[in-house]
């Protein structure tokens, strides 16, 4: 396993810290499960007050596994929540409830000559070095007409724990090409992400368009009853006697 893989797997995110917890007390507590090489409590840069979370990096991967098994954890009178540290953009992709229920990952950036055997060998080796986990299914996405690889696939494992480890590494090498691994998002998670990004659901957008149409009809500013052709084909056609532009289109006139 490459060194950067091992370093990421040795790191824990610690949430729910007492605001009075220091690096010293955090280190003292987590040293019960092994030798720590780095302990940090995250603080606001201006006030230096604790942000309520931190990170602990161990010398050995086994210490991380031991901490996660030994739950619950209480430090400085407050229950804390250790979790395997993952990349920041990975945690932002979906709600925790949705991503934690999945045993499937997305693998992107595959070389065109990559075979299913290449993918399986990569993740079988990772599971072997991690000491647990098993690849259950590989779905390689291909073009329907040409049967050529589309550059990505989905891999299903037998447990969430091994998915956590794989995603904490994020980058792997398959056929001398670096590929990126992410948790596979459910259709529902993708819909929620779209709603969050654009601010409206499809129904809300339809409602807004209908309300806009009705308001124009009710105000009497529409001439004729063909809103669709009059509005969508609207164009500048000179000006009226008062110097105001005339917006026209369709067969039933336009606006003044």
From TrEMBL:
BP terms from Gene Ontology: regulation of translation
InterPro entries: Nucleotide-bd_a/b_plait_sf (IPR012677), RBD_domain_sf (IPR035979), RRM_dom (IPR000504)
Gene3D superfamilies reported in the protein's UniProt record: 3.30.70.330
Region described as Disordered: 192-226
Compositional bias of kind Basic and acidic residues: 192-216
Keyword Transmembrane helix: no
Entry's Gene Ontology molecular function annotations: mRNA binding
Keywords for the protein's UniProt record, in alphabetical order: Repeat, RNA-binding
Cell inner membrane is among the record's keywords: no
Any matching Pfam family: RRM_1
Name this protein carries in UniProt: Heterogeneous nuclear ribonucleo A1-like isoform X2
Organism: Paramuricea clavata (Red gorgonian)
Source organism phylogeny: Eukaryota, Metazoa, Cnidaria, Anthozoa, Octocorallia
């Amino acid at each position: 396993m490459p060194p950067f893989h091992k370093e990421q797997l040795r790191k824990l995110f610690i949430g729910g810290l007492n605001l009075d917890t220091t690096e010293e007390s955090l280190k003292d507590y987590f040293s019960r499960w092994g030798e720590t090489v780095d302990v940090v409590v995250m603080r606001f840069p201006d006030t230096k007050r604790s942000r309520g979370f931190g990170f602990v990096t161990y010398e050995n991967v086994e210490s991380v596994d031991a901490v996660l098994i030994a739950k619950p954890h209480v430090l400085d009178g407050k229950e804390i929540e250790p979790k395997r540290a993952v990349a920041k953009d990975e945690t932002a992709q979906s709600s925790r409830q949705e991503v934690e229920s999945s045993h499937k990952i997305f693998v992107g950036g595959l070389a065109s000559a990559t075979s299913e055997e290449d993918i399986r060998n990569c993740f079988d080796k990772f599971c072997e070095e991690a000491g647990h986990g098993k690849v259950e299914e590989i779905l390689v996405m291909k073009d329907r007409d040409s049967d050529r690889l589309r550059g990505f696939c989905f891999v299903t494992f037998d447990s969430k724990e091994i998915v956590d480890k794989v995603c904490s590494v994020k980058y792997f090498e398959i056929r001398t090409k670096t590929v990126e691994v992410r948790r596979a998002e459910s259709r529902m998670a993708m819909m929620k992400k779209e709603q969050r990004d654009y601010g409206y659901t499809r129904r809300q957008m339809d409602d807004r368009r209908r309300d806009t149409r009705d308001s124009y009809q009710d105000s009497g500013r529409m001439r004729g009853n063909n809103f669709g052709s009059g509005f969508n084909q609207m164009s500048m056609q000179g000006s009226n006697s008062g110097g105001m532009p005339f917006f026209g289109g369709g067969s039933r006139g336009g606006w003044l």
